[in-house]
Amino acid sequence: LPFSPAPRIRGLAELERARLGIFRDIHVEAGPMVVFEQTRTAPEEEPSKGYTLWEAGVSGSINLSKASMLATVRVENLFDTAYTDHLSRYRPYGILNPGRNVIFQLEFRLP
Fold first, then answer.
1. Which of 14, 30, 69, 88 has the fewest CB atoms within 10 Å around its CB?
2. What distance separates the 2 farthest-apart alpha carbons in the chain?
3. Phi and psi (nearest 5°) for 8?
4. Distance set, CA 72 to CA 13, 66, 97, 104 (Å)
5. Tell me: the pLDDT tens digits for 39-60?
6. Residue 29, SS3?
7. Cβ proximity of 36 and 49 under 8 Å
8. CB-hemisphere CA count at 13 Å for 107?
9. Would you state the pLDDT for residue 97?
10. Per-residue pLDDT tens over the stretch 79-95
11. Integer Cα distance of 51 and 91 in angstroms
12. Contact 53, 74 (CB under 8 A)
């Protein structure tokens, strides 16, 4: 089939801990996403190279009297790998996909 995504596989290692200082329910995770080269293309389609992207994250809860707060930090493309996805519309122009992405999230849980 033309314009099929490249094969990919994800790995993930997780670590959980009940308490650490003021934080509870700590969750740490990290792992790669390996995207293989796409050589099975249609005649009008260019093959693409493979790449590996790493991501990592940590989260934990803090009790705030009656409510609680969940704090999360995630990093996608941890090593700022330069890559172009096979199905990217910008690939013919040589424009790369986004680099490192850092995400901060606070979630307040009310009773």
1. 14
2. 64
3. -145, 155
4. 17, 20, 24, 6
5. 988 888 889 999 999 999 999 9
6. strand
7. no
8. 10
9. 95
10. 999 999 999 999 989 99
11. 14
12. no
- The number of beta carbons lying within 10 Å of the beta carbon of residue 19 is 10
Assess contact for 45 and 75: CB atoms under 8 A: no
Q: How many residues does the chain have?
A: 111
| Amino acid identity for residue 104 in this structure | F
Q: What is the DSSP string of 67-85?
A: EEEEEEEEEESTT------
Q: Tokens representing 35?
A: 């995207």
* Both structure tokens of 81: 């790998």
Predicted pLDDT at 32 = 98
The predicted model scores a pTM of 0.84
Residues with Cβ within 8 Å of residue 76, at least 6 apart in sequence: 53, 55, 100, 101, 103
Q: What's the sign of the alpha-carbon dihedral 17, 18, 20, 25? A: positive
95 CB contacts (<8 Å, ≥6 apart)?
A: 84, 88
Report d(CA 86, CA 81) in Å as an integer. Answer: 15
Two structure tokens written together for 1: 């089939």
